[in-house]
Design brief:
Helix content is 20%, strand content 26%. The chain is α+β, with helices and mostly antiparallel strands and 221 residues long.
Length: 221
Amino acid sequence: MTKAPPKLTKIQSKALDFIRSSLERSGTAPTLRELCAHMGYSAIGSAQDLVAALRRKGFLHTPDKQSARSLVLTQKAIALHEPAHQSTDTTYVVHGLDRLSSDNPFEENEEHIATLRISIGMFQRPYPAPENLFAFKASDESMVDVGILNGDWLLIHHQNEAESGDMVLVRLNNEVYVRRMLQDRNGWYLRSENVAFPIIRAKEEENFAVIGKILAVQRVI
């Protein structure tokens, strides 16, 4: 007999909704003190007990290192609350990631930290298929001169090829970069949109892969 998944109490559901809404709104999890204030607790230990219960039931990851904003939803928690991944007449729903362990953002082992609802008006015609879209969180200032800031969500079409001049998410060896992909007589290279960052050239013997093309930028206010 298959064991039924653990159920959430009303209090646990309220806490999980708050954590999820914080991740969707700002891309960061609440601190334990913020969770404590939202739940109306006077002692932070009560929030810690609540988080521990959500971890035991498989709705929050146990971090390798505890930090102020280390609350991360598991795939089970995301599936419990997320809307259907389908386009409407006006919006798409896409998953947001802040790291990639492979070249495929849709693999089950890739952890989504947010679910974003995006206006279809952000994309140029012909509109991309929603099932090929994902969001990736910018983590540096390498593209500031084209208006991409640290913490912005990049709306990316998953593809393995790009044309010269495209802004792309790429993997070079074990590092993931957001850059403009260009070509000259010496071959392909990656250029930032910030003079403080050097040009990166991919050598033939290096592991280089295009993960996707950046189509739009979503800033969380």
